[in-house]
């Protein structure tokens, strides 16, 4: 399967374009890295790919076909700050199973402890919360993961744990990954190809 | 070199009401000891959400009302009480806060950076300094009139950094000044922090990014589950063999350039009777599960582990 964005243009206000004719493609068996300066529009592109922004020009396709809006969206975005993506008044068990019933096996792969499930989001650390937000996105219908700086806020030990688990699951289930990071050393560890954002955005 | 900041056996816990009137004390920082001298950068390295920021907040006296603090903080040899904290903060002691949410959403960023002024003249003087510092971070004049919601994450962080530098402080507490910035801005931030050191200022750098700590700090303290488990000179962090604690070794080996080595285990959520790393430790003994090691000195470093001697001799 191929996730493709063709000639995407977008601006938040009329005076300043943030994306101009940007194109990118990820195959199911690939991990593509994306690097760029802060404020350059990486996260905006991520939101367009995963269906959070719809008033752009250009097209996002899955195997050449547009992605239907109605069903489960097969491109899932994982954000940098997990604490901002969770309902603070839900306990973690409800947060985890919001999209699908996460299997015990997958919980074990990600080192998720049962004692965390009865806690509120504010009672867990960033690394613990990020495991929840990744598992939540790994619904069996997910075909692509957009990982927008998902380990930036974590310590190096947790960073390895999270990436190892995510990559092994995605390889086994033929899920493609677009990994956005500012850290070239990290991307070089596991990416098939690393793109520079300036080079795909024609501003 | 003169001591600027001394923190002795600081513990911070929070009282929360959990169901009805049942109170629950949760400990966030335990028995923390650290010092910062003039012209020195000391980094506290720990995972995000582990409570490092509370150290900064307690030095500045901005902890919430339900925080219980024990231990002692001294600034230039004087015990820092709430009155002194309020007098010094924003002048001699400045904070670069962690989150962009610390900006006032209803105020233009240049005015926030300038802060409170007694009269027009002071405002005009500060305006010049503010423009200079903004320019150094690549924030051009159009940025002055923006509101925080119009900034990108990186720009907002540059605004926070500039705001702290305008006061020209002696002690700077930098709470995660770099995440989310691109490589070039990180380099600039690092240069700026080092520059402060050359001007005789002390910096307490609170971060989870080991690279930033390695590039800036003179000493690094490793923060794990509320405890400082090791304080060592920065040169020793180049190689896992030269640091003492098993967790510090795991941390160094997990860096992308050192092999991205996987170490299992997460930090315990609740207070444990023994060493906080016992559950994940490869060299732990029965004693570690029952008794807490103290932070002790060893060849210029500080270490909190019963077994580090044996473990490091064998290597």
Mean pLDDT of chain B: 87
Q: Which runs of chain B of at least 5 residues are low in confidence (pLDDT < 50)?
A: none
Question: Which oligomeric state applies?
Answer: heterodimer
CA-based gyration radius of chain A = 17 Å
Compressed to H and E, one letter per element, the order of chain A equals EEEHEEEHHHEHEHEH
Q: Profile the largest sheet of chain A.
A: 5 strands, parallel
- Head-to-tail CA distance between termini of chain B: 35 Å
Count of separate structural domains of chain A: 1
Shape of chain A: globular
CATH topology title of chain A: Rossmann fold
Termini separation of chain A comes to 29 Å
Beta-strand residue percentage of chain B: 25-35%
Largest interface: A-B, 37 and 36 residues
Structural class of chain A: alpha/beta
CATH architecture term of chain A = 3-Layer(aba) Sandwich
In order across it, which strands form the biggest sheet of chain B? 6-7-8-3-9-10-12-11
Written description of the protein model:
The complex is a heterodimer of chains A (203) and B (315). With 203 residues, chain A is an alpha/beta fold. Chain A has one domain (2-200): Rossmann fold (3-Layer(aba) Sandwich), CATH 3.40.50.300. Chain A is built from 7 helices and 9 strands, in the order E-E-E-H-E-E-E-H-H-H-E-H-E-H-E-H. In chain A, the strands form 2 sheets. Chain A has a 5-stranded parallel sheet with strand order 6-7-8-3-9, with helices on both faces. A 4-stranded antiparallel sheet of chain A has the order 2-1-4-5, with helices on one face. In chain A, helix 4 (126-137) runs parallel beside helix 5. The longest helix of chain A has 17 residues, at 156-172. Chain A is globular. The mean pLDDT of chain A is 92. Chain B has 315 residues and is of the alpha/beta class. In chain B, the strands form 2 sheets. Chain B has an 8-stranded mixed sheet, with helices on both faces. In chain B, a hairpin with a 2-residue loop joins strand 11 and strand 12 (301-303). In chain B, helix 4 crosses helix 6. The two termini of chain B are 35 Å apart. The mean pLDDT of chain B is 87. Chain A binds chain B through residues 36-39, 80, 111, 113, 115-116, 119, 123-129, 149, 152-161, 163-164, 182-186, 188-189, and chain B through 45-50, 152-155, 179-186, 208, 210, 247, 250-251, 254-257, 260-267, 269.
